[in-house]
Design a protein that fits this description.
This is Acetolactate synthase 2 small subunit. By secondary structure, this protein is of the alpha+beta class. The chain has 2 helices and 4 strands, in the order βαββαβ.
Length: about 80
Amino acid sequence: MGLNQLTIIAHNQLGILERILRVIRHRGGRITAINMQLRESNIININIVLESQRPIELLKKQLIKLVDVINIDDEHYSNNH
């Protein structure tokens, strides 16, 4: 079980962070770090470091289905990152 970093770009709509966290919880992810920044035009960047026993691709497929999610990038995370 390795650490992965997800970078999620989404519209800053009421409840979007809660919906993202709910999907991660239901898919068995364990968040170890989270950072959110507001960008221009009511767009947010959410960086999440998490560990999961399931493939990260399955989680990404579920997250991209959320209406306000625009894009998701992932990469393996290391402490030297």
